[in-house]
């Protein structure tokens, strides 16, 4: 049975597509990027697909990734309304079959407000749909790619608990980036990731080892922003599912080892016009742009410069959208050893900068794009992409000029004298900045107050749990000698 024969456009096409099935799997995404779903009988599914959707408990926006209810009441889902149902609207365009689950049909859902039937602003797919609609208003299409780095362990959920999450066994030893030998170990698992992803409709551009014990890196194929975010979430689901079959536990935690590089979740972005032309690139016949802000942007269009300026201008105010966990900030240490930037910087083909300009002469003009190197693999791709595109669109709308100097023109003194602006260094600081009344995140055309208050509340909950926790480090350091 093939993974897909094309998404259905009508209910009759849908009925024909799943005529031989008895059940269907559906899922939505919560604020932490966790898939929440269920099996439905074919009849129930077809009934929901033929109407406005079906009821889905709003508690998935009222608890954290371990199903603990948030510390305080939030706007969208709370105890006061008894966690009433949201409307889960089936997105037929997301049809695919799950190869490792007997090719059961699978669909993603959008969560709608039950009263207005509008996209739920805190639904990850909802906010990215809103973002792409805003781009469409100026005749622009959002395109993106995601690269994941992830550690793999010879562990299971049961062994993690038994070991109390300590002394875990990496899948392979040593630092072996781009190794052809290390992939011969656990080869079936490594190959299955690529092959099953292709069957699952999650196209991969590159798949290899990265430096670190048991680390893989997978670059997902460039596509439209919403499809990219779907593929990124489903890639994690696929990898974790296949890992269970092979006795392997892949981890997308941003910084599982203190003395080793962390796991990035780099995102690549560009805009196209309605004809499909990349609007970040200059006209190939004209060559370098004479009115560019500097040499680093000479092959970036003026619109691309506005977009870049917008991202630089507001990125510190949306950091929780890019780095949503306590652990994620421990990855952002700067320096060439880890290539995890902690400052607001940019540069042509610079892996040390927060934003890497990828343009001619290193790539063809059509491949011109920006790589945002701040997020870790623990990001929610819907929120991260929404943040970057909304900031970029804000830069275009305001015609923000690029005034900051590129990475190659900065000196060590520039960091000391404040010329280089630093990013927030903790989730607590980042959340406080995002929730300020004057935050860019609250602006009209950005995320708005409802989203900021709800998502910010979920991050405050995460900080509260961290502040209340007693860590092994504290016990080892203080229990005897304090």
Overview of the molecule:
- By secondary structure, the protein is α+β, with helices and mostly antiparallel strands.
- It has two domains: 11-119, Glutamine synthetase, N-terminal domain (Ubiquitin-like (UB roll), Roll), CATH 3.10.20; 141-473, Creatine Kinase, Chain A, domain 2.
- The protein is 31% helix and 18% strand.
- The chain is built from 14 helices and 14 strands.
- It has helices spanning 11-17, 42-50, 124-137, 157-162, 187-199, 225-246, 302-314, 319-322, 328-331, 381-398, 412-416, 427-434, 448-468, 472-478; strands at 23-29, 35-41, 54-57, 85-98, 104-112, 141-153, 204-209, 215-220, 223-224, 249-251, 267-272, 346-348, 355-358, 369-372.
- The strands form two sheets. Strands 6, 7, 8, 9, 10, 11, 12, 13 and 14 form a nine-stranded mixed beta sheet that branches. It has a five-stranded mixed beta sheet with strand order 2-1-5-4-3.
- Strand 7 and strand 8 (215-220) form a beta hairpin.
- The termini are far apart.
- It comes from Marasmius oreades (fairy-ring Marasmius).
- Residues 124-482 form the GS catalytic domain.
Radius of gyration: 22 Å
Annotated CATH architecture of the largest domain: 2-Layer Sandwich
What is the succession of H and E elements?
A: HEEHEEEHEHHEEEHEEHHHEEEHHHHH
Largest sheet: 9 strands, mixed
**Proportion of residues in β-strands:** 15-25%
Shape: globular
Termini Cα gap: 65 Å
Q: Can you count the helices?
A: 14
Mean pLDDT: 94
Q: What do we call the CATH homologous superfamily of the largest domain?
A: Glutamine synthetase/guanido kinase, catalytic domain
CATH class of the largest domain: Alpha Beta
How many separate domains make up the residues?
2
Q: Find the count of extended strands (DSSP E, 2+ residues).
A: 14
* Class per helix and strand makeup: alpha+beta
Q: Ranges with pLDDT <50 over ≥5 residues?
A: none
CATH topology term of the largest domain? Creatine Kinase, Chain A, domain 2
Helix content class: 25-40%
């Amino acid at each position: 049975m093939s993974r897909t024969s094309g998404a259905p456009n009508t209910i009759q096409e849908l009925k024909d597509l799943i005529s031989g099935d008895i059940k269907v799997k559906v899922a939505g995404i919560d604020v932490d990027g966790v898939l929440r779903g269920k099996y439905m009988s074919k009849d129930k599914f077809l009934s929901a697909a033929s109407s406005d959707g079906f009821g889905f408990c709003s508690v998935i926006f009222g608890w954290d990734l371990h199903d603990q209810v948030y510390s305080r009441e939030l706007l969208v889902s709370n105890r006061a309304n008894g966690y009433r149902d949201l409307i889960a609207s089936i997105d037929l365009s997301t049809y695919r079959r799950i190869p490792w689950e007997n090719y059961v049909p699978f669909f993603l859902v959008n969560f709608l407000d039950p009263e207005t039937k509008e996209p739920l602003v805190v639904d990850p797919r909802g906010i990215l749909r809103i973002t792409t609609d805003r781009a469409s208003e100026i005749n622009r299409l959002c395109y993106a790619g995601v690269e994941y780095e992830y550690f793999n362990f010879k562990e299971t959920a049961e062994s993690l608990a038994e070991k109390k999450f300590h002394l875990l066994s990496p899948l392979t030893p040593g630092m072996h980036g781009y190794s052809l030998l290390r992939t011969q170990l656990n080869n079936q698992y490594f190959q299955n990731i690529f092959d099953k992803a292709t069957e699952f409709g999650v196209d991969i551009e590159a798949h290899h080892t990265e430096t670190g014990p048991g680390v893989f890196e997978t670059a997902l194929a460039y596509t439209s922003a919403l499809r990219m975010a779907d593929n990124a979430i489903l890639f994690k689901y696929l990898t974790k599912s296949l890992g269970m079959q092979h006795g392997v536990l892949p981890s997308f935690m941003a910084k599982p080892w203190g003395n080793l590089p962390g796991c990035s979740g780099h995102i690549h972005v560009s805009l196209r016009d309605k004809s499909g032309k990349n609007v970040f690139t200059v006209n190939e016949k004209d060559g370098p742009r004479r009115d560019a802000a500097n040499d680093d942007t000479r092959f970036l269009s003026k619109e691309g410069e506005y977009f870049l300026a917008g991202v630089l201008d507001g990125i510190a105010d949306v950091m929780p959208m890019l780095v949503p966990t306590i652990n994620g900030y421990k990855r952002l240490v700067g320096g060439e050893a880890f290539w995890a930037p902690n400052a607001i910087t940019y540069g042509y083909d610079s892996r040390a900068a927060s934003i890497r300009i990828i343009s001619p002469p290193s790539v063809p003009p059509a491949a011109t794009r920006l790589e945002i190197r701040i997020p870790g693999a623990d990001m929610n791709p819907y929120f991260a992409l929404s943040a970057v595109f909304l900031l970029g669109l804000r830069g275009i709308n305001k015609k923000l000029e690029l005034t900051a100097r590129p990475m190659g023109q900065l000196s060590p003194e520039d960091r000391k004298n404040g010329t280089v602006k630093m990013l927030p260094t903790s989730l607590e600081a980042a959340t406080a900045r995002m929730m300020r009344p004057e935050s860019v995140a609250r602006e009209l055309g950005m995320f708005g107050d409802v989203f900021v208050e709800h998502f910010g509340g979920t991050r405050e909950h995460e900080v509260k749990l961290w502040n209340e926790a007693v860590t092994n480090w504290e016990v080892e350091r203080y229990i005897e000698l304090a």
